[in-house]
Design goal:
35% helix, four-stranded antiparallel β-sheet, alpha/beta, ten-stranded mixed β-sheet, 463 residues, Alpha-Beta Plaits, Aminopeptidase
């Protein structure tokens, strides 16, 4: 989102017409959040198992039985533990899954202005590693499960919760993938609520749009390889593996995959157009009306995020060539990171790349494959609770569906047949949270209102 464009918008004061929670209620939630954030769960210096165990203890203290709460640790990976819990419903309706990851990106305290593993409230923000990504949602879900249990709530629909490890790095066992393969009964659900979308604020702090994420791209890794006999560098020949690969990469740099709007991305461009305004807004509206509008495509594609939402992308991220400084290269390889729109197999992208490279001497191989899935549908059953909660919390704020060009753990659930939606209700000015970066933060008000939003929709979904 272009902050400069949003800065030109004028909004009224951010008003929320609803009863505020009691201070003791808010303090109880803050204690859960603080404890979770202050447990280092990074891959380099921390432990997800410690965080999972601490939250399990809180659930036990609230009255959950040992049969309904469990810390599940993959064999041989003592720090990669996951917490699963269930609040059993009164009907046979399929369950809801509340999903959040409790691992965080590494943080070097010497680089931060504040200790990254001490929760600090300052100038209207909470600062800490994981304050936003994703311990905010994890703490909300733990708090919600505790409140429903201690209040004697008996939802019609069973509520499952999974706080998982391994989302932030491939060096860990991914908790969702592990649970699907080994303990699926703990996370089986009709649909899941996950990270992936919050809300957009103007620079003045007024709500611009509440986002609901439905669908995300599938990450496929593809290699391009050229091989030849090589030889002594004192006797150059026209056929050089590095030169041939370079020419292919140059052709690839000018290749664009076709624009393909899904119902979600079409709605995103349509609803964001009047908010953004100007030439970009006009182009987004035109694209939503006709995805083949070449002029609109060109304008919208000038924004890297919008471009990534409307088409598959493949970009070179690594190159390796040659074996000695005094020898002609026998091999040259480039690695491509391909973010593929849902509904397309890796083989389709492989074939498209071969056509774009236009050189049979460049071998195209699928190195790492992720199974694809279809984007979850934004049905009335999904959107109704969101609309009701939003109308109470942020009146007149538009709800804008979105698709993330990146990836969350929802990619595993969607592929396993569990539709997964990103919705937190936690608003921010685009880029201000600095998740994964230094001095990660979240607005205090945004966290507490996100808590109210998630509490409202989960209770609505569960009946």
């Amino acid at each position: 989102m272009r902050i400069a464009v949003l800065a030109c918008l004028f909004f009224t004061t951010w008003g929320v017409a609803h009863a505020q929670p009691s201070q003791s209620d808010r303090d109880a939630f803050r204690a859960i959040y603080e404890e979770l954030v202050e447990i280092d769960s990074s891959e380099a210096t921390g432990s997800c198992t410690r965080a999972a165990t601490a939250m399990a203890t809180r659930l036990y203290d609230a009255g959950f039985s040992r049969d309904d709460v469990r810390v599940i640790i993959p064999d041989g990976r003592p720090d990669d533990g996951n917490l699963v819990a269930v609040l059993r419903g009164s009907s046979r309706q399929r369950a809801i899954l509340l999903l959040a990851h409790i691992d965080v990106v590494n943080a070097n305290p010497a680089d931060w202005e504040r200790d990254p593993f001490t929760l600090i409230e300052e100038n209207g923000f909470f600062y800490a590693r994981g304050a936003a990504d994703d311990k905010a949602m994890a703490a909300v879900f733990v708090d919600l499960m505790i409140r429903m249990r201690t209040n004697g709530a008996r939802p019609r629909r069973t509520i499952r919760m999974a706080l998982t490890c391994g989302e932030e790095t491939s060096n860990r066992v991914n908790g969702v993938e592990f649970l699907l393969s080994n303990h699926r009964e703990w996370i089986q659900a009709e649909f899941a609520i996950n990270e992936g979308a919050g809300g957009i604020l103007s620079p003045s702090g007024a709500p611009v749009a509440l986002n609901v994420q439905a669908g995300e791209k599938v990450h496929q890794v593809i290699s391009l390889t050229v091989t030849n006999p090589g030889g002594h560098s004192s006797r150059p020949v026209p056929e050089n593996a590095i030169y041939r690969l370079s020419r292919g990469l140059d052709r690839l740099s000018r290749h664009q995959f076709p624009v393909e709007l899904t119902p979600v991305t079409r709605a995103f461009f349509e609803r964001m157009a009047p908010i953004i305004g100007g030439d970009m807004g006009a182009a987004m509206a035109a694209l939503a009306r006709n995805q083949d509008d070449a002029a609109a495509q060109q304008v919208v594609a000038s924004d890297p995020n919008f471009n990534a939402m409307m088409r598959t992308t493949c970009v070179a991220t690594q190159v390796d060539a040659g074996h000695a400084t005094n020898a002609l290269p026998q091999r040259a390889t480039a690695m491509l990171s391909c973010r593929v729109l849902q509904g397309h197999a890796a083989e389709e992208i492989q074939a498209e790349l071969q056509r774009a490279l236009d050189d049979p001497m460049i071998q195209v191989d699928i190195v790492r494959r992720r199974e694809g899935s279809n984007a979850p549908q934004l049905t009335r059953n999904i959107m109704g609770p969101v609309e009701r909660a939003a109308a109470r919390l942020w009146p007149d704020t538009p709800i804008v569906p979105t698709m993330t060009p990146g990836a969350t753990d929802g990619r595993f659930l969607n592929a396993a047949g569990i539709p997964t939606y990103g919705m937190s209700g936690m608003f921010s000015v685009p880029g201000e949270n600095n998740a994964h970066g230094l001095n990660e933060k979240i607005r205090v008000r945004s966290l507490y209102e996100g808590r109210e939003f998630l509490n409202a929709i989960v209770r609505d979904y569960s009946g």
